Amino acid sequence: MSSSTLSTTVTAPRAVERLVVGQPTSDGAGVKLTRVLTGPLQRRLDPFLMLDAFGSDKADDYIAGFPSHPHRGFETVTYMLDGRMRHRDSAGHEGLLGPGGVQWMTAGRGVIHSELPEQEEGLMEGFQLWLNLPAKDKMRAPWYRDIPTAEIPEFEREGVKVRVIAGESHGVKGAVQREHTEPVYLDLHLEPGARFEQALPDTHNVFVYVYRGALRFDTGCTVPRERMAIFTNTPGSDGLVLTAGDEPTRAILVAGKPLGEPIAQYGPFVMNTQAELMQAVRDFQEGRLA
Ligand code: FE
């Protein structure tokens, strides 16, 4: 089913398959974060490879940032809820990511970049999602786009504000479209008790991460704050129906079409084979990623 044939009314919603608690960790030069989508879920949530949630008003938790490091073979999507981060990369791109903005970077055959806080105090909150590239695109030229908050399409309906970062929702096209994986990335702000439907092909893998309030389902299942819910790929299902609990609720919804290709990862390199990973490490060590 192509996304253009999807209705906006969901009559056969998917069920929650499982809830996932993120793992507290640190990355970069000591940034505290919660790794929500971890290695063991990469196959289940293909084409997504990682989701990190960060949020702190203690400068020590984020101030060191992510100094120069390489990537190859996938895309990184950083969504800032609060705070400012400056990006610089070896392809010559530079940008300042601010509250509500998105940075979409296609590493392709390789970039070396840094992501450093441009603030010494206050709240820093957001997400970094890694989206895999199909084998044929892993060595494509790097690409980069900063999308300021004002350029992210939004709409409101029935107590829900929807920010459409990627894909489409209720006829509103998002800031970024991608063929092959057809990602949908929404930030949902729901009033207490508000209900939201998102049409999705039954082949897409989909998860929701709740970062304020809670979601509840007709089945009696509740998804509390700081939990990821993975949804079943029920054949014949046509999407998701989400209902906020008694508090204002905010969640990101992420869906994509699986690539079904082998996944080989070594740190910041994600390829299809071990040989390609060894080549990536050699290319980095010998200065061919810059
Ligand atoms: Fe990075």
Word description of this protein:
- The radius of gyration is 18 Å and the shape is globular.
- It contains one helix and 26 strands.
- The N and C termini lie far apart (40 Å).
- The N terminus is likely disordered.
- The protein has 290 residues and is mainly beta.
- The strands form six sheets. A seven-stranded antiparallel sheet has the order 1-22-19-24-17-14-13, with no helix packed on it. Strands 2-3-4-11-6-9-12 form a seven-stranded antiparallel sheet, with no helix packed on it.
- It has a single domain, classed as Jelly Rolls (Sandwich).
**Helix and strand element order:** EEEEEEEEEEEEEEEEEEEEEEEEEEH
Portion of residues within helices: under 10%
Bound molecules: fe (iii) ion
CATH superfamily: Jelly Rolls
Main β-sheet: number of strands, strand sense, barrel status? Answer: 7 strands, antiparallel
* Count of individual beta strands: 26
Oligomer: single chain
- What's the helix count? 1
Task: Please report the distance between the alpha carbons of the first and last residues.
Answer: 40 Å
Looking across the biggest beta sheet, what order are the strands in? 1-22-19-24-17-14-13
The residue ranges in which pLDDT falls below 50 over 5 or more consecutive positions are 1-5
By CATH, the topology is: Jelly Rolls
Class of secondary structure makeup: mainly beta
The proportion of strand residues reads over 45%
CATH architecture: Sandwich
How large is the radius of gyration? 18 Å
